[in-house]
Amino acid sequence: MLKLDFEKKLVLLFFLSGISGLIYEVVWLRMLSRVLGVTNFATTVTLAAYMLGLGIGSYIWGKIADRDKNPLKTFALLQISIVITVFLVPVFLNMAITFYKFIFIKSNGSFAFVAFARILIAFFILLIPTILMGGTLPVIVNYATRKNKEYGNNLSILYGVNTLGAVFGVVLSGYFTIGFFGENESVLLGIVINLFVVYGILQLDKKESKLEHENITQEDKTRYTFGDLFTDKIRYLILVSIFISGFTALSYEIIWNRLLILYLEVSIYAFSGMLAVYLTGISLGSLFLSRIIKYIKKPLMFFGVLEIILGFLSILKLYLFPGFAHNTEGKILATFTLVLPTTFVFGMIFPLAAICYNKKIENSGTTTGMIYIFNISGNVLGSLITGFFLIGFLGSTKTVIILALINTILGYILLSLEKEKLKVNNTVALTAITLIVLFAVIIVKQDVFFRTFFEKNRFIPHYFKLFLHKETIQGVVTSFEYAGAKHLNINGIGQTKLCTETKLMAHIPYFMADNPKKFLIICFGMGTILKSAAIYKELSIDVVELVPELYNCFEFYHPEAKNLLNEKRIRLYGEDGRNFLLITNEKYDIISIDPSPPIDSAGTVNLYTKEFFKLCKEHLTESGVMCLWFPGGKTDEDNWMIINTFSSVFQYVNIWKGPDNWGFYLTGKNKEEKINIKKLEDMYKNSDFVNDITEYGSQCSTADKFLGLLFTNIDQELKKARRYPVITDNNPYTEFQLFRNVRIKKE
C-alpha cells in the first residue's frame, strides 16, 4: 500500500488539477461562444471538440505512461504544458476570427462553409490543451498502480476525486470568480492552481525513487483486475459497451438540460448548479465503486445490472418529471432527483468497464486511455446525433425511451456474457424490460416538455389554442394564444408580446437616422419590428434570429407576413447576431437589437458588452443609428451599467422610456445631429405609419406623445451612469449578479 501521507497528498493534488481543468473549460466555452456563436450547434460542436481532445490525450498518454520511467515528472510536465497552452488560447481565438472572415468571404457568404469552419476552429483551438489534460488521468493512475497493484481501486478513487475537483471548479468559476474578478482572472487562478500542483508533485517525486516495472503475482492480478478472466472477444465487447454507454450518457445530459429549463429557467447560476450536480453524481458513483470493488465477484453481471438500472431510471424520471413543484424547493428537488441517480450509476460504469477490460496491471495506462477514448467517443457521437437529429425528429420523450431501451438491451447482453449464468439474470432482465415497456406505452403518446409547460402555467384548456410546438436544435418553440392574447415561448420562457414597445424599435431609430436605406434587426421574436420597419418602402431589411423556426410563426402573429417575406428587399438569416456581425462586411444605417429577456439569461450578456457595441458601431454608416431596447434589470444597477457601457462606445446617446414605463431604449450615433422635428411631423402625415404605431394602443398617437418618451436631461443621466462599471466580455456583470455589488461600490 502507498504510505498514507503520500497517498493523501497525491489525491489532493489530483483533486486540485480537476478544479483548474473545469475553470478553463467554463471560460474557454464562453470565449468560443463569442467567436463561434451561442447557437446550440456551435456550443455542441465546441464541447464535442473539447471532449474528443481529452479522449485522444488519454489514449496517447496512456500508452506512453506504461513505458514511462518517471510518471510523476511526466504529470508535472503535463501541468506545465497546460499552463503554456492556456496563454496561447486567446492568441488562437484572434487568429480564428481572421480565418472565419476569410472563409465567409471566399465562399461568397455561405453559412454552410462557415459552419464547417466552426468545427475546424473549435477542434484545433482546443486540441492541444485538451490532449494534455486528457493525459493526466492515465499517467497518475499508472503511477499509483505501480505502487500498490490496485488498479481498480486507484482508478475509481482518482477518477472520482478529479471529478469532484471539477465540481468545485464549476462552482468556483460559475458562482464566484467570473462574476467577481472576471474571465481572465479566473484563468489566472487556474494557472496558479496548476503551478501549485506542479510544485507539490515535484516535492513528492523527491521523496520517491524512480519506479521500475515490478513483477506482478497471479494473486495480485486476480484480486484487483478482471480482464484476465475474459477472452479477447469479450474484452472487445466491453469497449463497445462503454462506447454505447457513453453515447447514452451525453444524450441524457442534453435532454435533461433542456427539460430542466422549465424548472430552473436560464440563469447562469442554474446551469452551473445543474452541471455541478451532474459531476457530483459521477464523482460519488466512482468513489462508491472503490468501496465495493473487492466484493464484486461477477463484474459483467454487475455492469449489465447497472445498464438495466439506467434504462429503468430514465423512463421513471420521464414519468415523474411533470410532478415537481415550481417553487425553490421543487427546483432543487427536481435537479437532484432527475440528475443525481443517473450520473451516480454512470460514475460507477466507467471505472468498472476499465477493470473488466484490463488484462495486465503493468498496462494500466493503456487500459485507462483505451476505455476513456471509447467512452468519450460515445459521448461525442451521442451529443451530436441527439442534439442535431433525434430531438428534432422524435422529440425528447421518444428519444429518452429509445435510449432507455438501448441501456436495457446492452445490460441484457452483458448479463449473457457472464461465464456462470444465473437464473436470476434473466429474471432481472425480463422484469426490467417489461417495466420499461409498460412505462413507455404510458408515456410515449405524451410530450413531457409540453405537458410540464402547460401544467406549470396552469392553463385552462378551453382558453388555450396552440399554433406551433416544436423541438428544434436551438430550443423548444411554443407559439400559442391564451385568453385572446398571443404568446411566444422558447424553452418554456416568454419572449415578447404584441405591443407598441416593440414597434418603437423600428420607428425610433428610423426617426433618428439620416435618410436610412439599410436596416438590420437582431432578434426576430414575433416579427413586429420587421413588420413596422417594412412600412418604409425605401428600406432593405436584414433579420438575424438565433432560432430560425420563429420565422414559421410570423404569419400567426401578423397576417400580412406571407406577403412581406416574399419581398426581395427582406432577407432572413438563422444565425447568432454577434457572430453575424463578426463575419459580414455589410454596413447598415440602422441596427436594432431586441435581446431575449431577461438580461441576466445565460449568453444574453454577449449582446450587452462594450465589445459587442463596438462591433455594432463598426457596421454602422457614418450617419447610422443603433437602437437597443432592454426591459429593465432586477436592480437599478443593471440599468445604469448598460447605459454606461453603451455611452462608453457611442459619443452621442439618447435615452427613451417605454410607453407604459416598461423598459428603456438607447440610441447611439457616430456623429451629432439635432432632433429633426419636421421629419417626425412628416412621419405622422403618413397613414401607414399612424396605423402601425397605434395598432396596439394610443400611447404614441401624436408626435408630442412620441417625443415625450425622450429623456431631456440626458447629460445628467449619463453622468449618474458613469458611477457604475462598464460591462465587458471579461466582466459580464448582468449575468453574474452575486458579489458584483462589491465591485460596483469600488468603482
Short description:
The protein has 747 residues and is an alpha/beta fold. It is built from 27 helices and eleven strands.
Task: Tell me about this structure.
- By secondary structure, the chain is an alpha/beta fold.
- It folds into three domains: 1-212, Growth Hormone, Chain: A (Up-down Bundle), CATH 1.20.1250; 215-456, Growth Hormone, Chain: A (Up-down Bundle); 500-746, Rossmann fold (3-Layer(aba) Sandwich).
- 64% of the residues lie in helices and 9% in strands.
- The chain contains 27 helices and eleven strands.
- The strands form two sheets. Strands 7-6-5-8-9-11-10 form a seven-stranded mixed β-sheet, sandwiched between helices.
- Helix 11 (299-320) runs antiparallel to helix 12 and helix 11 packs across helix 13.
- The relative contact order is 0.09.
- The model is unreliable at 211-224 (pLDDT under 50).
Describe the secondary structure blueprint for this structure.
Layout: H1 4-36, H2 40-67, H3 71-106, H4 111-134, H5 136-148, H6 151-180, H7 183-207, H8 218-224, H9 232-264, H10 268-292, H11 299-320, H12 328-357, H13 364-417, H14 423-443, H15 448-456, E1 464-471, E2 476-482, E3 485-490, E4 493-496, H16 500-512, E5 518-522, H17 528-533, E6 540-545, H18 554-557, H19 561-565, E7 570-574, H20 577-583, E8 588-593, H21 610-618, E9 620-630, H22 636-647, E10 652-657, E11 664-669, H23 677-683, H24 687-693, H25 703-707, H26 714-721, H27 740-746
Parallel strand pairs: 5-6, 5-8, 6-7, 8-9
Antiparallel strand pairs: 1-2, 2-3, 3-4, 9-11, 10-11
